[in-house]
Write a structure and sequence with these properties.
The complex is a heterodimer of chains A (485) and B (773). Chain A has 485 residues and is α/β, with parallel strands linked by helices. Chain A has 15 helices and 17 strands. In chain A, the strands form 5 sheets. In chain A, strands 1, 4, 5, 6, 7, 8, 11, 12 and 15 form a 9-stranded mixed β-sheet that branches. In chain A, strands 2-3 form a two-stranded antiparallel ribbon. In chain A, strand 2 (122-125) and strand 3 form a beta hairpin. The longest helix of chain A has 25 residues, at 348-372. Chain A starts with a helix and ends in a 15-residue tail after the last strand. Among the domains of chain B are: 31-141, no CATH class; 235-469, no CATH class; 671-772, no CATH class. Chain B has helices at residues 2-26, 41-52, 54-57, 73-77, 98-104, 124-135, 166-178, 188-200, 206-214, 220-230, 233-245, 263-274, 279-288, 297-302, 319-339, 358-367, 396-400, 462-469, 477-490, 511-523, 528-537, 539-542, 549-554, 571-582, 640-643, 663-671, 673-687, 693-705, 711-727, 730-737, 750-764; strands at residues 391-393, 415-417, 428-431, 439-443, 567-568, 771-772. In chain B, the strands form 3 sheets. A two-stranded antiparallel ribbon of chain B has the order 1-2. Chain B has a two-stranded antiparallel ribbon with strand order 3-4. Chain B has a two-stranded antiparallel sheet with strand order 5-6. The radius of gyration of chain B is 29 Å and the shape is globular. Classes of the chains: A alpha/beta (485), B mainly alpha (773). Chains A and B meet through helix 1, helix 2, helix 3, helix 4 and strand 6 of A and helix 1, helix 23, helix 26, helix 29 and helix 30 of B.
Chain lengths: 485, 773
């Protein structure tokens, strides 16, 4: 709650705060250190270490990279091996297994629910012997570095609420995104970059879109909003100066601007004016820092080889994975990727192969790359979608062609680094891959665990808005002790 | 070096935190520094209990510990369940009161709040207040906001010369109590800028500035107020806030987020403000226009308000789940926008702080539950899906007749989603934990008795609900609206939490003023223009915005309004200011929303690929220069130009925007083509006049900043211009000018134009340019 007071002091009324510092432009020496750090949320150890109570205990992870597989990849063709489904191919899903699960409008009218085994074979990898499908050989090859959680479950069965739930802890509404909560809790480690950045890519599979509310700051100050980075010419909105204006000219203009704003500050004594000047300086620094980071041309060949040739093609998942490493390496707290196209209601075997090809190598490369740089210990990597898929076919079942509907009761994600036990498979589903047999992990539990790894007690990171103290985990959530090393 | 830096940061940040924590204890320096002679339950005690105790000992029966509730005197005075000889509160005897004993206990097992509650323990100041309150008899009061406002007597003030109308007596009275002096009146130029943005959302033009400056008659100010209120731009300005409240957008939301044509409803809002429709009718039509006997087309159109929420087009959804989501959205919007209550907290359980039960919630819900609508009507499709049943069709004859205010630009079919109930009343149940499929007990249309009982004379439908809102005894309706309006003008509500008049909301900084405004508004026919004029005519509003360091220290939040407002403009008006000052602004009102310049790829990278908004199709010509409120809002990817400056994403009802100051805003001001093009166009405009370069720069400055530049400012700008004339390379100039789609006059020298453009661009980037001064 201390954190909350600080935030109120800073963002809800910067003016109030600044007044206590008796800070005018005259005392710019103090201002230049202090203001950007605290008000842009773009900086420093200062933001984190001095907030009483946070971190609540020693953090394992300093940063998060979340590789969100948007649309919900099937667990049954990736990490949850169910030979039984092949054996019973085409037979009806027993009503006792379904147990009254509500179905989406897409299969609710279906007369039959024929079980569908994976078209793809599975192999065991690494010392852990984790089963991984042939669609994901690279991820299989790092099985000993990752922890596969086979028993995550959610409450939503449609994309929008399920995505929103995963990203904000609530199915509806303008709540802050995970990344915003982390930015709010810990600030950024880099003065020149935002604490929370977002990268988008799209596969050829059936897609469901993403929504900017997923990286929204909700009721937190907008400095905690996810900043969309793209590997286009303009990596951050409005970052590039117009053609015909070089850096020296921009500098000159900003100096004139500061001089003029100073006159106004002397007349009105409004501390907001000083803040404005500082934000222009921050913008100027970002103009140099961001392109430097976005430039992958200087990456050595072995790195390009590791991520695959697509990593040089802007806008691909592979390119975004490489960027994610660079952003994270440079102190961005929370890098959120979305790869769209995982909604295989039909034509699953073919579409999923394409999607897996997009992400398999680069996802594994990111973990390997962080590891070889000694960064994996302090970086939490997360891979997963918003729900799972049904064990029965949506539409007609053929051996090489079937579809799967949404399934909230169990699905698989994996995590690596940041104090998560490597080489582990957590939880078990029943032989039908329909229900959790042991060790369920609710979305709130997942959130609690991520915050825990960052040194934050999820019950203590709160923000009071319209009379209520909100948390990422709402009123629930338990840290999954079983996966923490 | 690194370490050194780190130490420096440690020191400074430690310092900062120290300051912040002092500031916390100082926060109430204005409101409640000393222990009052008579401790008030509402203003002194309840805020403490609500924040620290009600979580476990409040209205929520399910979370109540030890069967003790402190929000009601019966609960607090009763014998404790676990220890019948003791009582939480013994009026007159703090030492015998278990409450007092627990908050002061040194034993951590006894101390309240318990450490496991994560609630902070009470400060010494708070403990003293509680002690005194118990000693004085522990008198409970109904929550202030639930007591209907009575017209307070206008207080006497010593400073008889200052007040211009009643508002000023209330404001000055408080100031005098605290020993504050008001700021002098703002200079005419800044006052006009403030007024023009507050009444039209636009900067004053040169003609108006000259006229006002030259008019030294005593009625000059009032004349300009009347002129601005009478302009059609007044309706646009006033509508913007209402569009946030009404979560108005041009797409259906949810994953596919296809286009919808709800804009005729938006045109109606502008029209209603311009026609000065009384607030009572404005709301009644929106809530229940379809239920007014013999209603007009216009009254039906107004009900689009309750259909602005998101509507799914996702094929696989469970129908009832989404139908319930729509009713929930309406219920929550009703609570937040019209009652200033966080009704949504009672969606899943009894409200934890306010006397609103889950039953109360579903009773209000039931008013909105009979709409003839399914959860999903159609998936992404063509024009027939741009509105959802119930809907109305607007014909070309309509827009020539009664609905003249709709800016329909073609002869195509135009449909709008509106309200309409089924012939059969749909039964409403309490939804357990808010789940659409967990029915509890059946409930019937009614309103929370803690606010005001639903009078049996009202019909039990939405029209009756509107009657209830505007009943003379309703304690909230008028207060909530005048407070929203006050915030528009002063940047801070009299109740700071616009959407929460409940116990966790902030207390009014000037309760008598709020009540006077509310009662005056109600008893004068809910006349919005009259209220607006009252506010801007006050001496309080006309004060200069200079921030005296002493006042900043003692009243940082400006609760005493001893200085004028100085706030950054809302996102839409920043755009409007830029376009208007450059002369690019297209002043047409209403019509379909438009897609001006936007950085490429934003819609494409987020879309599901379906629907007409899958890719961004930018408009051309004069439609590029419409006011900010007409930029098309696609909910899943709202216009970034606006979002960066804290515009609402229109996902849900929003009564209060944040007002932040970020580096992304600086980047937008520097590099958005709209800004750069405006600088270029304005440069060309001033260069074509037959006068000196100083006069040209001064004119541009005036158009943007709305005052004449000071000598020092002119020196800097002139110097910059002269230098640029000498240093810009022709090739660079060509590139720089190549922005935006409006033509460049052929008769101008490129270097001169580029130099002037850079000077003007600098002026656009001044903090004062986007600030109400």
């Amino acid at each position: 709650m201390e954190k909350e007071f600080l935030e109120h002091g800073l963002s809800i009324n910067r003016r109030k705060f600044l007044s206590r510092l008796s800070l005018g432009i005259g005392s710019a020496a103090l201002g230049s250190l202090l203001i950007p750090d605290l008000f842009s949320g773009l900086a420093g150890e200062s933001g984190a270490d001095f907030i009483p109570g946070i971190p609540n205990f020693a953090p394992k992870a300093k940063r998060v990279i979340y590789l969100f597989q948007d649309g919900a990849p099937s667990q049954l063709e990736s990490f949850d091996y169910k030979p039984k489904l092949r054996e019973m191919m085409g037979q009806e899903l027993p009503a006792s297994v379904r147990g009254g699960q509500i179905l989406t409008g897409m299969t609710a009218q279906q007369k039959s629910f024929p079980l569908a085994g994976s078209y793809y074979d599975f192999k065991q990898y690494g010392r852990s012997g984790a089963w991984v499908s042939d669609l994901f050989p690279h991820i299989g090859s790092i099985a000993d570095d990752i922890c596969i959680v086979k028993t995550i479950y959610t409450e939503a069965i449609n994309h929008d609420p399920a995505l929103t739930f995963f990203q904000t802890g609530a199915q509806q509404g303008n709540r802050p995104s995970m990344g915003s909560w982390v930015s709010y809790g810990l600030g950024s480690e880099n003065k020149n970059l935002p604490a929370f950045t977002v990268l988008l890519s799209k596969g050829k599979g059936n897609g469901q879109g993403v929504y900017s509310k997923l990286w929204s700051n909700g009721f937190l100050d907008s400095i905690h909003q996810g900043v969309l980075f793209s590997s286009s010419e303009n990596p951050v909105l409005y970052l590039n100066d117009p053609d015909g204006l070089n850096r020296q000219e921009r500098r000159k203009m900003l100096d004139k601007l500061a001089e003029l704003n100073d006159l106004s500050a002397n007349q009105f004594h409004d501390p907001e004016i000083a803040t404005k000047v500082q934000q222009y300086e921050m913008a100027y620094r970002m103009q140099t820092a961001v392109p430097d980071i976005m430039d992958v041309s200087r990456e050595p060949d072995d790195i390009v080889k590791l991520y695959g040739p697509d990593c040089l093609v802007p806008g691909t998942y592979a390119a975004n994975c490489l960027l994610a490493r660079k952003l994270s390496e440079n102190g961005v707290r929370f890098v959120q990727l979305y790869h769209q196209g995982w909604d295989q209601h039909s034509n699953l075997p073919m579409e999923m192969a394409g999607q897996a090809k997009d992400v398999d190598q680069a996802s594994a490369a990111l973990v390997t790359d962080l590891k070889q740089r000694g960064l994996l210990d302090e970086t939490l990597v997360i891979w997963g979608g918003e729900f799972g898929r049904t064990n029965y076919s949506q539409g007609k079942l053929e051996k090489a062609n079937y579809g799967r509907d949404h399934h909230p009761r169990c699905f698989s994600i994996w995590m690596a680094g940041g104090g998560i036990t490597p080489g582990m498979v957590y939880g078990e589903t029943d032989e039908f891959g329909y229900n959790i047999a042991r060790d369920p992990v609710h979305v709130h539990d997942f959130h609690a665990t991520v915050l825990n790894q960052l040194g934050i007690d999820h019950t203590k990171l709160t923000f009071k808005s319209l009379g209520r103290r909100y948390r990422l985990t709402d009123v629930a959530g338990n840290v999954i002790k079983g996966i923490i090393s | 070096m690194r370490l050194k830096e780190l130490y420096a940061l440690f020191f400074i940040a430690g310092f900062a935190v120290g300051i912040v924590s002092c500031h916390r204890s100082n926060e109430k320096s204005v409101a409640a520094e000393d222990i009052p002679d008579v401790v008030s339950y509402n203003f002194n005690i309840r805020p403490i209990l609500s924040d620290k105790c009600f979580k476990c000992h409040g209205p929520d029966a399910n979370k109540r510990k030890a069967d003790l509730r402190l929000d009601l005197p019966e609960g607090a005075f009763a014998a404790l369940k676990d220890e019948p000889s003791a009582h939480a509160v013994v009026p007159g005897d703090p030492e015998a009161s278990e409450l007092y004993r627990r908050i002061t206990s040194v034993d951590s097992d006894q101390l309240m709040p318990t450490p496991t509650s994560h609630l902070k323990r009470l400060s010494a100041y708070e403990v003293t207040l509680i002690k005194k309150w118990i000693k004085q008899g522990a008198r409970y009061e109904k929550h202030w906001a639930f007591i209907p406002p009575k017209l307070p007597t206008v207080p006497e003030v010593d400073d008889k010369a200052w007040p211009k109308n009643e508002i000023d007596y209330f404001v000055r009275f408080k100031q005098e109590q605290k020993g504050f002096e008001p700021n002098p009146e703002a200079d005419k130029e800044r006052l006009l800028k403030r007024l023009s943005f507050d009444l039209n959302g636009l900067p004053p033009d040169i003609r108006l500035m000259d006229k006002f400056l030259a008019d030294n008659s005593p009625g000059a100010y009032e004349k300009v107020v009347d002129e601005l209120i009478a302009r059609p731009q007044y309706g646009e300005k006033m509508a913007l806030h209402w569009l946030d409240i009404a979560r108005y957008a041009d797409s259906h939301g949810y994953q596919d987020d296809n286009y919808r044509t709800q804009w005729p409803w938006r045109d109606w809002v502008i029209h209603a403000y311009n026609e000065n429709l009384p607030y009572k009718d404005f709301i009644t039509w929106q809530l229940a226009g379809d239920q007014i006997p013999g209603h007009t087309q216009e009254q039906l159109l107004a009900t689009g308000f309750n259909r602005n929420h998101k509507i799914t087009e996702e094929g696989g959804v469970i129908d009832e789940e989404y139908r319930v989501a729509y009713v929930t959205d309406r219920t929550n919007t009703f609570g937040k926008a019209l009652l200033g209550m966080t009704l949504e907290c009672a969606h899943c359980h009894d409200h934890k702080y306010d006397p609103l039960s889950q039953k109360d919630y579903y009773q209000i819900f039931s008013f909105f539950n009979s709409v003839k609508e399914p959860g999903i009507q159609s998936t992404v499709g063509g024009p027939e899906t741009y509105a959802k049943r119930p809907m109305m069709q607007i014909s070309n004859d309509d827009v020539k007749g009664l609905l003249k205010f709709i800016n329909k630009q073609d002869t195509g079919k135009l449909i709008v989603s509106v309200m309409g109930d089924s012939e059969v009343y749909r039964k409403t149940y309490i939804l357990k934990r808010g789940n659409y499929d967990s029915h509890g007990a059946e409930v019937f249309p009614a309103t929370p008795s803690a606010i005001l009982k639903f009078d049996a004379k009202f019909p039990r439908n939405r029209l009756g609900l509107a009657n209830w809102l505007f009943d003379d005894q309703n304690p909230l309706t008028a207060r909530v609206y005048v407070n929203q309006l006050w915030e528009e003008f002063f940047g801070r509500g009299i109740v700071k939490t616009l959407g929460d008049f409940g116990m966790q909301g902030e207390l009014p900084s000037n309760p008598a003023l709020l009540d006077w405004l509310a009662v005056d508004f109600r008893t004068h026919g809910w006349n919005v223009k009259r209220l607006v004029k009252q506010i801007v005519m006050s001496a309080t509003y006309r004060q200069s915005a200079v921030i005296d360091p002493e006042k900043l220290k003692n009243d940082p939040d400006n609760m005493l309004v001893a200085r004028g407002p100085r706030n950054r403009l809302p996102a839409e008006f920043i755009r409007d200011m830029v376009l208007s000052s450059s002369g690019l602004l297209n002043k047409s009102i209403g019509g379909p929303s438009v897609n001006p310049y936007q950085p490429p790829g934003l819609w494409e990278s987020t879309t599901s690929g379906r629907g007409q908004l899958a890719s961004y199709r930018q408009v051309h010509g004069s439609n590029l220069y419409r006011r900010g409120m007409y930029t098309l809002i696609k909910r899943t990817s709202p216009p970034v130009e606006m979002a960066i400056f804290d515009a609402s994403n229109r996902d849900q009802c929003e009564v209060q925007r944040l007002r932040t100051n970020t580096p992304l805003q600086a980047l937008e001001m520097l590099n958005d083509p709209t800004m750069l093009e405006s600088a270029r166009v304005l440069a060309a405009k001033v260069l074509q006049e037959n006068n000196s370069s100083q006069e040209k720069i001064a004119e541009a400055f005036r158009r943007i900043i709305c005052r004449k530049p000071m000598a020092k400012e002119m020196t800097i700008l002139n110097g910059y211009y002269a230098e640029q004339l000498n240093t810009i390379h022709p090739a660079e100039a060509g590139k720089l000018l190549h922005v935006g789609e409006s033509p460049i006059p052929g008769n101008l020298d490129k270097i001169t134009l580029a130099a002037m453009m850079k000077v003007i661009d600098t002026i656009y980037n001044l903090e004062e340019a986007i600030t109400k001064t």
